[in-house]
Amino acid sequence: MSTKKRYAVPPTETEWDIPGSFDTTFRWEYEDARDSLVKLYEKGKNLQWNTNTRIDWSQDLDPENPQELPDESVTIYGSDVWNKLSRKERANLRRHLQAWQLSQFLHGEQGALICTAKIVQQVPNVDSKFYAATQVMDEARHVETYSRLLHEKFDLAYPITPTLKRLLNDVLSDSRWDMTYLGMQILIEGLALAAFAQIRDQAKNSLAAAVNAYVMQDEARHVAFGVLSLQEFYGQLTAAEIRERQEFAFEAAVRMRDRFLQQEVWERMGVDVGEAVKVLLQTPERDMFQAMLFSKIVPNCRKLGLLDAADGWLRARFTELGVIQFEHWDDTAAELAVA
User: Fold this and answer.
1) CATH of 35-45+65-338 among 1.10.3720.10, 1.10.620.20, 1.10.287.3610, 3.90.870.10
2) Average pLDDT of each block of 10 consecutive residues along the chain (339 residues)?
3) Alpha-carbon distance 177 to 171, whole Å?
4) Would you say 255 and 170 are in contact if contact means Cβ atoms under 8 Å apart?
5) Cα-Cα-Cα-Cα dihedral sign, residues 87, 93, 99, 101
6) Which of 191, 152, 150 has its CA nearest to residue 292?
């Protein structure tokens, strides 16, 4: 059965081709392995899970609030726009907002699947190829899991947002292997971890909470993999090459932050898009949530030497955004990911 009928907004395309070319690296040195990546590889093998047996899919979702999230998680909650909605309209809005967010998770996970397969081909070290191979399996499982949650339980989905699509296009079309790491492992996966955590911590529905908790377990390792793989390499780059990566990291992070305006949902629900976005931009909780999205990005940029390199350009940008306080935020979490 085609999934096209489940899209709340008709997709303009059912597939998307990204032209590009890159080198595929074979490595004949099989014993040159870094202990940290070997440990991560072992952990990746041991923590594989089957979504069909690990998660109880017999659980039902409340049609009015599928993940049983508090109304405070609705970005226009308490505004005049929200107050004008009827009980039925609020219930429908909850379902669509949740389906929209999970749909972006789903599309992002397919992007991660493709990026990681590219990393296996490109990366010059065998230990990185080994771990990336376990991540390919992880990402396939994540695509399967979110697809099942949306198609079987929500019976509703949304197309990929233009912002996420552009970022994936940039990451996948770049021929340099480290840019694939930086874009996917550090930025997209890092931002996703913060969003996953919010659902895991707020969802009262055990199925929804379980899905995000298990995916987060994998994603923490994926981000650690990106950091471990890039630290040594970035120490060898010129100042000009580092600046290019700083600018890419900053622009991509801001682009991902600004994608949470949810215009597609407001339009689909018949809510005035301009009015809803205006409320959203003025909501203090939005600033807090968007700042939290950087709680994984900023510390990892520090670990990669991007914060203070090239005269501290990236540190200055993150300071202007008001997110520099996160630079030491997840040191403990990173250590647990590879322990």
Assistant:
1) 1.10.620.20
2) 74 73 76 85 94 95 95 90 95 96 94 95 92 96 97 94 90 92 90 83 92 92 91 92 94 78 91 89 69 82 90 92 84 46
3) 9
4) no
5) negative
6) 191
Q: Where are the domains of the chain?
A: 35-45+65-338
Q: Which long-range contacts (CB under 8 A, 24 or more apart) does 266-274 make?
A: 267/9, 268/8, 268/9, 268/96, 269/89, 269/92, 269/93, 269/96, 271/76, 271/81, 271/85, 271/93, 272/81
| Neighbour count for residue 16 (Cβ, 10 Å) | 12
- At which residue do the structure tokens 């120490």 appear? 235
What 3-state DSSP class applies to 328? coil
User: How far is the C-alpha of 79 from the C-alpha of 288, rounded, in Å?
Assistant: 17
